[in-house]
Amino acid sequence: MSDDCIFCSIVAGDIPARTVRETDDVLAFLDANPLSRGHALVIPKSHAQHVGDLDDDLAGELFAVVTDLVPHIGSTVGADGANVGINDGEAAGQEVPHVHVHVIPRFEGDGGAPLHAVGGERPDLSDDELDAVAEAIAE
Ligand code: AMP
Ligand code: ZN
Q: Where's the HIT domain (predicted)?
């Protein structure tokens, strides 16, 4: 638990939230400023800022709740699809420094954009450069 973390305060019950799912180590609640009807956040109950900080068991439980909730929320609100994503780090737009998976139901013609829209200017990488990036990551 982090003292000045709003999501830790939700887990502790000090701040109200519209809970939609709870397991031993994971909590899901509606986003207070939803991008669409049913927009939910799925979080580990323990404090961690980055996905890379989660151990495998917790990451698995987190993703299991996500995969269960996505179709459930979708059928509940009558969505046609969903965007599922994490803003990991300030540079990626993370405002609350406690890992949270956004589940954003999407509707035909809702005027939104795909996840591809989150990127900045696209790099112009040659095949060789792509090969080098892949090799470096795979090492
Ligand atoms: P991010 O930019 O990925 O850190 O997103 C943080 C999200 O948390 C935003 O979509 C906010 O609307 C949401 N949020 C912030 N405070 C609360 C709260 N008390 N209850 C529910 N959602 C919240
Ligand atoms: Zn926290």
A: 6-113
Which residue is catalytic, options 39, 50, 98, 100? 100
Q: Are the C-beta atoms of residues 40 and 19 closer than 8 Å to each other? A: no
The rounded distance, in Å, linking the Cα atoms of 50 and 136 is 22
- Give 130 Cα–ligand 1 centroid separation in angstroms: 35
How many angstroms does the Cα of residue 60 sit away from the middle of ligand 1?
22
Q: Closest Cα partner for 98 from 54, 50, 55, 62?
A: 50
Give the residues across from 44 on adjacent strands: 26
Return the percent helix, strand and coil in the chain, to nearest 5: 35, 20, 45
Which pLDDT score is estimated for 109?
97
- Give the mean model confidence (pLDDT) for residues 70-86: 98
Q: What's the predicted TM-score (pTM) here?
A: 0.97
| Domain definitions of the chain by residue range | 6-138
Tell me the pLDDT tens digit for each residue of 25-56: 999 999 999 999 999 999 999 999 999 999 99
User: For tokens 């090799």, what's the residue?
Assistant: 135
Beta strands 101-106 and 81-85 are antiparallel
